[in-house]
Every structure is written in structure tokens, then in C-alpha cells.
Design a protein that fits this description.
Layout lengths: L4 E10 L2 E8 L5 E3 L12 E7 L9 E7 L9 E11 L1 H7 L4 H12 L9 E2 L3 E9 L11 E5 L11 E5 L3 E3 L6 H4 L3 H14 L11 E5 L4 H12 L3 E6 L4 H6 L4 E4 L5 H7 L5 E4 L5 H5 L9 E5 L4 H8 L1 H20 L3 E5 L6 H12 L7 E6 L3 H9 L6 E5 L3 H13 L1
Parallel strand pairs: 12-13, 12-15, 13-14, 15-16, 16-17, 18-19
Antiparallel strand pairs: 1-2, 2-3, 4-5, 4-7, 6-8, 6-10, 6-19, 8-9, 9-11
Helix pairs in contact: 1-12, 4-5, 9-10
Bound molecules: NADP nicotinamide-adenine-dinucleotide phosphate.
């Protein structure tokens, strides 16, 4: 990408602190000399894919006049110009209303108000972009820095031109890959990180030689999990469909099982002695594989597919969560009888882990697995792609758009 700079005055936030920005072609970077003046940005509106009611991909609307998020916590927040994002299965399901009761409840708690806005809803969990503004108290980041991050499901998402970043859930982006490649990693990567490290208690210090079974290896979370485990020295067996076997072998799995093969269940039973099973599919896999874990060795069955949000959607947050606690307790009790543990795992926003992952990417221990890159204006097609399933890595959206950049440049010059 060429870094041909053209200098424009973006805005004057306070009379004594001119914000002097350099807009780089194709939205590459914004570099501000005085980044601590809190905006009132000159630009108040942006393009964002929004939904005003739950439903299919036809409910996604491109709003050209969406409000740019404002930096609230000046010690942690940054405004980020998004260069690329990805579409996760969660986005597609949230569009249909999945998790709405729980996420609304969290929004209300965060806002300490029953009137926390549900709509317009902006989806998108991952972002890779450049810092456009930083809060006064933010250390270690300045305007123009290239960062990446992953947002919690109740936060306003990244399928927009700007997103609210935070030092808590962002880090500097790996410098060796493009924004589109980078956007494929944070949400799926941090889910795998949470599953294997936080809930599974594996790390680079203790994973060497551990035998791990990855179920649903060919998707966003699975492809990342295999690479993380290999970088930590674990021995990986993976389960995927026939056409994904070669890709999964290339990512480093020692042993790949094709679940489409007629002998699959027989072949599965032949395997034994896993220290950890990481399940990205759910359903009958628990019953099929729980006996493959070693007994009485603190071995864990970690699943990222749990009924928590569905229970809350169906029964309400209170009763649904209570039901989930009972279900989780029963599942755990059943597995404890053989000295194993079953854990439901969830994405956790984690800036520190992202920093480590960025280093691993730059060291080529982890490569982005991108299936297809869509343009920003093709967002509904990107959702359709994810909706159709059978992912082979990640579906990414490239937000860089010369037309929008030029329009903004004109607006900036006028200020
Ligand atoms: N708990 C959390 O916080 C959290 C966070 C992120 C994701 N998730 C959930 O975790 C799951 C995985 O996420 P993801 O982003 O990796 O999804 P994804 O990109 O859609 O990948 C799912 C993969 O599983 C494969 N698959 C489907 N059925 C399979 C089977 N029977 N055996 C083996 N592989 C199978 C799919 O390919 P084929 O169908 O072609 O085999 C696809 O490659 C999703 O259900 C997602 O909602 C949970």
C-alpha cells in the first residue's frame, strides 16, 4: 500500500490545541500532533451498517449519517478508524435476535438505566484500523497508531467507519500483515485463547506434548486454536470435513479425522488419551468423545457452544441463567465421576492476549486464515456467506474506500 500523505487540518477541538492530522490515502493512517484534545470531532457522521429490527440480512441497512461514537472514558478510550472487520457466526445470529435479552440487560447495567438503546444495532466484533483520537489519559497509544481489537457483543460494533476502541480490548496490530488479514483474528482468536488458556489452563509453559483434540477445526476459532496449540508445542488431532483435511494438515495438526468418512465414529473410538478436548461444534460430540479424555488427570472438555444465551432468550434472563447454571452443574457433575471436567467457555476481551498474539503473528507462528474478503458495501453478502456455514477460515470485510476517504477529506478541509 502506498503511503502518500496529504496534510489536512481535521478540526480545531480547543482554540489552544490545533489538531493537525495527516490523512493517508486509502484511509491508511491518521497522525495527530496533539492527540490529547478531546473531540468534538469535525466529522459527526459516518457510514455504518445498522439494523432497526431483528431478522434476516435484508434487515441490514447502510446508514450514511450514523453517529460517530464519542470517547467517554478518557483514560481508556480511543476512536478508531476501521480499515477492516470480519463477520462472525455471532453477528449473523445476533441479527436474528439471538442473545438480545442478555445483551440488553448488560447494556442497561452498564448505563445504569432501563433505557439503554438496543437499536440501531451495529454488529461486528473485530476491527483493525488506525487511532483517530485518544482520550487524555490514554498511555502508549497516539493518533495514527495501527491497532486491532475485539468488542463484546453488547458494544456497538465494527461494521462501521469508526468504532470505540479501548486499551482494555485492543493492542497494536501485527505489522507484518494487512488490515484485512488482521481483522480475521481478534474475536475468533480470543475465543480460542479463552477456551484453551483461561478455561483450559494451557499455556506456552505447560502445553508441550499435551494431546489435544480440536472439533470443528476448519472455522475461525478452530483454525486459530490449532495454530496456537502448535506454537505451544501441543500434539493436535483435528476433526473436519473432507475438503478441509489438507488445509488443517497444513496448519500443523498431526492427525486429522474426516467426519464425513463412513468409518469416522469407528476411527474416533480408536483414539484415546487426550488431555484436552476443544469443541467448536457441540451436539453429539460431547457423548462421542468424553471417554477419549484421560481419567483422573484433571483433563478438560472445553466447549464454546453452550445454551446460555438461548436459555435466556427462551426463558428470560433470570430463569434462563438459572437453568444454564443447573445444566452446567449437571454436566460438570457427570464428568467429575471420572476425574474429568467439562467447562463452557466464552470469548473474553483481552488486550494483553492480543499483544501476545500480534507477536506470534509477526513471528509467523500464527497465520491469518482468510476465506474471502468482501467490500464494505457488500456487507449483506458477507453475512450471507457466514449464514451458509461450512466456513474455511474467516470472512473479512475491507472498509477502505477511496470515495468515502475523498468525501471526508473535503469535509475536513472545509472545517
Ligand atoms: N462461546 C463464545 O463466546 C463463542 C465465541 C465465538 C464462537 N462461538 C461459537 O463457536 C462455534 C465456532 O465458531 P467459529 O467462528 O469457528 O464458526 P465457523 O467459522 O462457522 O466454523 C465452524 C466450523 O465447524 C465445521 N463443522 C460443522 N459441523 C461439523 C461437524 N459435525 N464436525 C466437525 N466440524 C464441523 C464447519 O465446517 P463444515 O460444516 O463444512 O464441516 C466450520 O468450518 C460457533 O458455534 C460459534 O457460534 C462461541
Amino acid at each position: 500500500m502506498s503511503i502518500e500523505a496529504e496534510e489536512v487540518v481535521l478540526h480545531r477541538a480547543q482554540p489552544h490545541k490545533d489538531m493537525y492530522c495527516r490523512t493517508l490515502k486509502r484511509g491508511l493512517s491518521l497522525q495527530c500532533r496533539f492527540q490529547h484534545s478531546l473531540p468534538k470531532p469535525a466529522l459527526k457522521t459516518m457510514q455504518a451498517w445498522q439494523t432497526f429490527q431483528y431478522g434476516g440480512t435484508d434487515k441490514l441497512q447502510l446508514n450514511e449519517m450514523a453517529e460517530i461514537p464519542t470517547v467517554k472514558n478518557t483514560c481508556t478510550d480511543m476512536l478508531v478508524k476501521v480499515h477492516a472487520s470480519s463477520v462472525n457466526p455471532l453477528d449473523v445470529r445476533m441479527l436474528e435476535g439471538y442473545g438480545a435479552k442478555t445483551f440488553n440487560c448488560v447494556r442497561q447495567l452498564n448505563k445504569c438505566s432501563l433505557n439503554a438503546d438496543e437499536f440501531p444495532l451495529v454488529l461486528g466484533r473485530d476491527f483493525s484500523g488506525t487511532v483517530a483520537y485518544v482520550g487524555k489519559g490514554v498511555k502508549n497509544y497516539k493518533c495514527g497508531d495501527e491497532i486491532w481489537g475485539a468488542l463484546s457483543p453488547w458494544q456497538s460494533g465494527s461494521h462501521s467507519e469508526y468504532v470505540l476502541g479501548s486499551i482494555c480490548y485492543s493492542s497494536k496490530k501485527p505489522s507484518s500483515i494487512s488490515h484485512s488479514e488482521a481483522a480475521s483474528i481478534p474475536y475468533a482468536g480470543l475465543t480460542a485463547w479463552a477456551g484453551l488458556s483461561t478455561f483450559g489452563e494451557l499455556s506456552e509453559k505447560n502445553a508441550y506434548g499435551k494431546r489435544v483434540l480440536v472439533i470443528g477445526a476448519s472455522g475461525g476459532v478452530g483454525t486459530f486454536a490449532i495454530q496456537l496449540l502448535k506454537a505451544w508445542g501441543a500434539e493436535v488431532t483435528a476433526i473436519c470435513a473432507t475438503d478441509a483435511v489438507e488445509m488443517i494438515q497444513n496448519l500443523g495438526a498431526e492427525n486429522v479425522l474426516d467426519y464425513k468418512c463412513p468409518e469416522f465414529k469407528y476411527n474416533l473410538k480408536e483414539l484415546k488419551g487426550f488431555d484436552l478436548i476443544f469443541d467448536n461444534v457441540g451436539g453429539e460430540y460431547h457423548d462421542l468423545t468424553i471417554n477419549l479424555l484421560k481419567s483422573w488427570r484433571n483433563c478438560k472438555y472445553i466447549t464454546v457452544v453452550s445454551p446460555l444465551l438461548k436459555n435466556a432468550d427462551d426463558k428470560g434472563v433470570l430463569f434462563g441463567t438459572a437453568l444454564s447454571v443447573v445444566q452446567a452443574g449437571l454436566d460438570t457433575a457427570m464428568s467429575l465421576k471420572d476425574g474429568k471436567s467439562l467447562r463452557w467457555a466464552y470469548f473474553i476481551p483481552n488486550g494483553c492476549a492480543l499483544k501476545t498474539i500480534a507477536r506470534m503473528v509477526d513471528n509467523k507462528q500464527i497465520i491469518p486464515v482468510v476465506e474471502k474478503v468482501y467490500k464494505f458495501e457488500e456487507m449483506p453478502q458477507a453475512y450471507e456467506r457466514v449464514l451458509n456455514g461450512h466456513a474455511r477460515g474467516k470472512t473479512v470485510v475491507d472498509h477502505t474506500n477511496e470515495e468515502i476517504e475523498n468525501k471526508h477529506k473535503e469535509e475536513c478541509v472545509k472545517v
